[in-house]
Amino acid sequence: MLIAIAKDEAFNFTYRANIDALAAKGEIIYFSPMRDKHLPDCDLLYLPGGYPELFASQLSANESMRNSIKNYAERGGHIYAECGGFMYLCNDIDGTPMAGVLPMSATMQGARLHLGYRRALFGNTELRGHEFHYSTIVDAPLPPNVTVIRNQRSATNTPVPTELYHYLNVTAGYTHWYWAENAAHLLEQIM
Fold first, then answer.
1. What are the distances in angstroms from CA 110 to CA 5, 40, 61, 93, 134?
2. Rounded to an integer, what distance in angstroms lies between the CA atom of residue 171 and that of residue 81?
3. Residues 6+ apart with CB under 8 A from 80
4. Is 90 among the residues known to form the active site?
5. Where are the chain's structural domains?
6. Which of 18, 64, 137, 160 is most enclosed, with most CB atoms within 10 A?
7. Element (H, E) at 120
8. Contacts of 67 (CB under 8 A, 6+ apart)
9. Residue 37 in contact with residue 66, Cβ under 8 Å?
10. Backbone phi, psi, residue 18, to 5°
11. What would the pLDDT profile of 65-112 be if each residue is shown by its tens digit?
């Protein structure tokens, strides 16, 4: 399996153990959504966290990469995105065009910290992770082919409003999951 992972100034937050777990499942190829013109051939695209809002103009200017990722998703390509990667898959960040895979917008307007440990069932596997971001998703009606999963809880088992979105073979949300010990289960769910 070929696994393409975004890695540059805009996408630089990953758990090392998650990368090691992916490397045990296939060959990893790194690429830059800011600099490379096209998505490399892959069986799975992983867009990790980072700060795309700080590099929004550079990401937007790379229209060929944005189109490449959108076409990959529309052809049924498997994508897993978290936090900054999730924002990049949106139509835009505060009006600056992004990949347009998910029919929603991210905003830094009224930025406030969303922080805490999270846990959720992902298929039959409980995952644990954390949420750390200042952006929010602008509420917009979602088409019926976008599934919203609302099952995350805090460390004290209190429900939290953080959502996970599923569209075609795309899974995305704000939470940074630590799934190293559950990589096989995670891949089963997203592949």
1. 30, 36, 25, 13, 9
2. 6
3. 44, 45, 46, 47, 171, 172, 186, 190
4. no
5. 2-190
6. 18
7. strand 114-122
8. none
9. no
10. -65, -45
11. 999 999 999 999 999 999 999 999 999 999 999 999 999 999 999 887
Q: Give the span between the Cα atoms of 188 and 62, in whole angstroms.
A: 32
The per-residue pLDDT for 185 is 67
Q: Is the CB of residue 58 less than 8 Å from the CB of residue 16?
A: no
Contact status, residue 11 vs residue 48, Cβ threshold 8 Å? yes
* Residue of 44, 83, 89, 120 with catalytic role: 83
Give residue for tokens 């088409």: 143
3-state secondary structure 172-187: EECCEEECHHHHHHHH
**Distance (Å, whole) CA 38 – CA 13:** 22
> What gap in Å lies between CA 56 and CA 54, rounded to an integer?
6
**Are 50 and 16 contacting, i.e. CB atoms less than 8 angstroms apart?**
no
Is the pTM above the cut of 0.85? Answer: yes
**What is the DSSP-derived secondary structure letter of residue 52?**
G
CATH architecture designation of domain 2-190: 3-Layer(aba) Sandwich (3.40)
* Length of the chain (residues): 191
DSSP H helices, 11-141, are: 16-25, 56-61, 63-74, 84-89
| Residue corresponding to tokens 């969303």 | 114
